[in-house]
Every structure is written in C-alpha cells, then in structure tokens.
C-alpha cells in the first residue's frame, strides 16, 4: 500500500492513511522522527554514523559497542537477525526481558536514594497529623472557631509548593543538575523541619512550613524524573513507582513518630515538646538522602544536555546503571539522536515560550491535560496526601480528627491513623508489580469507582448513631486506602514523569507538581470549613462524587503509557483527542461482548508504531 507523504513541518501533525483494515488511521507524531529517529537508515550507514558519533564525542574506545547498540536501538525486535552481533552480544540484550530486575548496584542505590527522598515527603506530610492535636493550644488557635487559620497553617507547605517551589524546578535542574537539586531540597526539608519545631507563634510556624514547600516542590518534581531518566524502559514504571511506595512508608513513619512522642511531657523551659519532636523528626530522612547522593551517578540525559564534553561522563554513568556495556552503548546513542531531534525543535525558544507550548502544541497539550487530570485526581479522590501521593487527601491530613469525631479518643485516633498508614504502605506493594503489567490507565479505571464506593460507605457511616459510627467509618477508610495505595496513589507521578517530551519535561513536570500541590493546598485549607458547612458525612460524599467524575475524565482523556519508551510516547500523545475519545467509546461494546457475553470479537488497535509491530492500548476496554 502506498503511504502518504508526510509534512516536513515539525509543528504540524502528520496523518497517515496507511492502516490495517478496520483500524483508525494511525496519526503521525508532532515530531515524527522521534517515533524512532533511526528507522529506515541502512545498516551500513547506521554503523558509519554511530562510529563517527563515538569518535566525535570522545567515545572512541567504545565505538564498536556503540555501533552494535545502534543496530539494536533501530529495531529491538529484530535482534536475533543481526549478523553483526555475536551470541554473547545477543545474550546481553536478551537479559533485559528475561531478567528484568537484574540491575546494577548503582541503579538500586539510586532507587534507594529516591525512595528515601519519598520517605522525607511522607513524613513531612503526616507528622502534622499528630502535632495538630497539640500545637493549636500552645499557639493560641481554636480549630473549631479559627477554621481557616487552622487550615492555612496546616496547608502552608502546599501553598509554597504551588506558588513558587515547583517553579524553581527548572532553574535548579539547569544550574545544579538532578543530584544537586535533590541535595538542595533535602537540606531545605531538614532545616525547615527543625525550624518548625522551635516556633513560638502560629505566624512563625506558618512561615517555616511555607518555606518547607520550597523544598518539597522541586524535590517532588525532580526525583520521579531522575528515576525515569535513569531506569530501563521495561521497568521504568515500577522503579518510578518506588517514589509512591516509600512515600507511603514515610506516611506510616510519620504516624509512628506521632505515637512515639505523644506522651512526651513538657519541661520547665519547653512547652509542647511532644509536637515539636513530631515536626522535627521529619528532618532525619533528609540527612540520609544527603549522605547517599555523592555515591550515585548523575542523570546521563542531563549530562548529555550540557554539551559534547560531558558525553564520556554520561557513558560512564550509563555503564554504572546498566548490567552490560552494550546496553549502555545502545542507550547513549539512542538518547543522543532523540535529543538532537528534540533540541532542533526548541532551538532559540525561551523557557516562557516552551511553557506556552505546553498548551499550544497539540501533542504537548494532550500530555498536559492527561497529567493535570491524574494529579488533580490524586488530591480530589479524597486522599489527603500529596507529597506525591497520599493522605487521603482528607483522611490523611485530618485522619486523627476524623477518627476522633467517629468516637475514638485522641490516642486511639492516632493508633487508627497509624493503621491507616500501615495499610497504605502495605498495599502500595501490589502497585509496584501491577503498574507495568496492567498499565497506568487500567489502575485508575479500577481505582476511581472502588474509591467512590468506599467514600460513600464512610459518608453513610457518619449518619449512623454516634456509638455505631466507628465500624463503617473505619472499614470505609481502610478499604479506601487499599484501593488508593495501588491506583491513584502511585500512578500520577509515574505518569507525569514520562508523558512530556524531553524538550518540555522540566516545565511540564513543574506544572504537574504545581497542580498537585495547589489542589493539596485547597484541600488542606478548605476541609475544616467544608466539614463544618457540609457536615463530615457531606464532605466525604462530595469527594465520592469527584471519584465518579474522575473515572469519566480518565476514561476519555488519559491515554495508556505502559511499556513505551520515553520517545515512543510522542506518538501516543499526537493522536487527536477526538480520535482517542471516539476509540474509547467504541471499546464499551467490545468490553461487553468480550468480557460479559464471552464472544470472540477482534479488538480494534489504536496505535501503530511501525510497519510490522502493532501496539494497542491495553487498558482501553476499561
């Protein structure tokens, strides 16, 4: 079949009419070459180009490996048919699929560092949960009267994140790199936790927590991108998801700290020693992050973006992060050619112009919309955490108060909240194994309806007689946490870290995290007033309704990204929105016929990535 000629204009989506029978024509990408910049190049020329690249960029000693890697990068599925590769060479690449988690010590150390960074986020999020039972009395705040002041003090870090912190991500990454940014923000987290522990007025506490947001924001945007840029594509989702997993652990540790310091008495010179120790304890994991960072390599993509002279260092970093030198050689060349194409598109464009392009270029706009939906959903699904994933946006931040209103005493409320944190941590484990197997979108489409049902149970529980409320409220909250922990909790940061093209990734992730922290701030500051106006039952009903709405938004506007390389995602988000929406609508009868009526029907494919390999959106049928 003759293919239609594509436009050379990189800002005009190219549309092909070459599709399989019965399929929607696969739209070409905004940056069509990024579908695979090496596609169609004759092997002889590709080897010559890769060898020339190695000599030009100071990688002459690895020229042979880079040439072999270029052949594999051009078409990984034809690995077995490449005569230029020995059996030993082929085994090095086969290992990626047969032993996915056989990775280097440095990669696991990097994952550990990112994970501890997530623990910092989790503790920053939840130590205030126990502290809020005590600090209002010492700082002259009446939570039942000064509801907006109480909410503002609790939510101050998220205001700092949304207004300024997240927008520092791009300049910090540009001047200090991924590792430097994480180091700076970890120090800020440590310093402000100590600062908040020595405050003597609500104004002082508010300012210290506001500055804490300057550490939380850039760190929450940088760590997932750092993990996404360094992890192999086939386990990228699982490794990036470690951020959520250990954030959940940090949330649990925050409750442990609340319980550990609950009965600490005042001294002759210190009032509120218990809540001060709670707030200060969140700074300890930040010290561990700063201790580990010097022993892990910088992001190879970041190093390559700094110029030709940094390529040898980037290759050394990749060799530390990949089990075999051939994998590192392949990745450095493929990253290079993709970066060349992307840099060509942004040549001469300012950061502001590129930010505007997040909305004006269709491919970027679709990624922005999808990322915004999942980030907004992490907050308005009802789970108060944001650090990057957690506290039931409501339940977590105010879980001690929620449980207290359901009949628990203060200490029992904290114990129940600790149980909530433990459940959140334990059920993040299934997310680690399912996010790459079933996909990001699938988990969301399962999570939103189930969380809706659980919040309805909580809402109805608060309508029961007071002495009967504990059982339905606790059951609803814990089951909600189970669903959240492997769906709306881990998905947003993993999803947002991978959907933007390299040319707009820092700005896109800044926007995504600013969105998350802004709505975290909205939730934290409004929930006391919302609960007072709607009653506790009505407040949880409100967020149950949001889960129903989020299911619809995810169904229509959030494409799947599972198992795609960071570069292949360009084509996914170049598919017109109306094409994607129409396709999802057509999948409803397919789902009914295939999974309910058990009929043998052929599944329509949405994406065609190359001439002989078809990928479908695995979760498109709900």
Automatic annotation (TrEMBL):
* The reaction(s) this protein catalyses: myo-inositol(out) + H(+)(out) = myo-inositol(in) + H(+)(in)
Region (Disordered), start-end ranges: 1-36
Q: Which GO terms describe its biological process?
A: myo-inositol transport; polyol transmembrane transport
Question: Can you provide one Gene Ontology molecular function annotated for this UniProt record?
Answer: transmembrane transporter activity
Composition bias, Basic and acidic residues: 1-11
GO CC, alphabetical: membrane
Q: Which residues form the Major facilitator superfamily (MFS) profile domain?
A: 110-562
Keyword annotations for this protein, in alphabetical order, are: Membrane, Transmembrane, Transmembrane helix, Transport
Bilayer topology:
Multi-pass membrane protein
Pfam families tied to this protein: Sugar_tr
As for subcellular location, the record says: Membrane
Q: Superkingdom of the source?
A: Eukaryota
Q: Does the keyword Membrane apply?
A: yes
- The transmembrane residues are 148-168, 180-198, 243-261, 273-296, 415-435, 442-464, 470-486, 507-527, 539-558
Q: Which NCBIfam families match?
A: SP
The similarity annotation says: Belongs to the major facilitator superfamily. Sugar transporter (TC 2.A.1.1) family.
Protein name per UniProt = Major facilitator superfamily (MFS) profile domain-containing protein
